């Protein structure tokens, strides 16, 4: 998808926004929640999927989502659950460990994320935790 198509898609999403949709206290609460999530996530991936298809078959958005979820909550139970969910939710052939570091995703990512680096971290995290 071209950059212009991405802009048009984003504009269509906010086209119906109306000023004053939220009360001031709603805005404050939303900003606090947003700040909390942003402080926890490692890869600021929106899950748009523009990075796909991956030549190695890696499901990049799913891997980055699972990577972020691992860091979202504290406590060993949450970490253990994230580990289990990764191995349930991500098929072996779509796991981060299959990344070839070819860089094709870098050219397509509208957020200019260092995707291969994040995939390497994801692979290291979930392989280290494999039982």
Structure in words:
The chain has 131 residues and is an all-alpha fold. It has helices at 3-14, 24-40, 60-72, 76-89, 104-108, 115-128. It has one domain. It is 57% helix and 0% strand. α3 runs antiparallel to α4 (76-89). The relative contact order is 0.14. The model has no long low-confidence stretch (mean pLDDT 89).
Element layout with pairings:
Blueprint: H1 3-14, H2 24-40, H3 60-72, H4 76-89, H5 104-108, H6 115-128
- Give the helix proportion (percent range): 55-70%
Low-confidence stretches: none
In the residues, how many domains can be counted? 1
Strand fraction: under 5%
Structural class comes to mainly alpha
So what's the overall shape? flat
- Any idea what the radius of gyration is? 17 Å
Average pLDDT reading: 89
- What does the largest sheet look like? none
Task: Please state the oligomeric state of the protein chains shown.
Answer: single chain
Q: H/E element string? A: HHHHHH
Tell me how many strands there are. 0
Distance between the termini: 40 Å
Count of DSSP-assigned helices: 6
């Amino acid at each position: 998808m071209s950059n212009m198509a991405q802009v048009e898609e984003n504009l269509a999403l906010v086209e119906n926004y109306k000023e004053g949709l939220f009360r001031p206290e709603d805005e404050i609460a939303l900003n606090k929640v947003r700040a909390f999530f942003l402080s926890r996530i490692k890869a600021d991936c929106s899950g748009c999927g523009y990075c796909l298809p991956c030549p190695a078959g890696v499901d990049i958005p799913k891997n980055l989502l699972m990577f972020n979820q691992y860091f979202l909550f504290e406590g060993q139970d949450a970490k253990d659950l994230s580990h289990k969910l990764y191995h349930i939710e991500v098929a072996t052939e779509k796991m981060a460990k299959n990344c070839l570091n070819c860089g094709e995703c870098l050219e397509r990512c509208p957020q200019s994320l260092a995707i291969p680096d994040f995939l390497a971290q994801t692979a290291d995290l979930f392989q280290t935790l494999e039982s």
